[in-house]
User: Which sequence fits this backbone?
């Protein structure tokens, strides 16, 4: 699956262009690929959406460290 979506600037985007993630419903009986397609078609842009009144902008660092590794490191350093 090839998805080409641009990441807008959360400081300047119009809230009326965004979808509230709380309105997205995914059917768990669908295949993984179909769940992803459903999510993207409903949210329209997974890099910028609303969560209630909050504009959420998602980005990823260009690094070899995985999200899982980052979360493990974060959890280990909470104590």
Assistant:
């Amino acid at each position: 699956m090839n998805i080409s979506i641009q990441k807008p600037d959360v400081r300047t985007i119009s809230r009326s262009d965004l979808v509230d993630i709380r309105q997205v419903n995914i059917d768990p009986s669908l295949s993984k690929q179909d769940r992803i397609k459903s999510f993207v078609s409903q949210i329209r842009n997974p890099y910028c959406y609303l969560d209630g009144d909050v504009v959420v902008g998602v980005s990823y660092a260009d690094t070899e460290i995985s999200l899982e590794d980052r979360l493990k490191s974060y959890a280990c350093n909470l104590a």
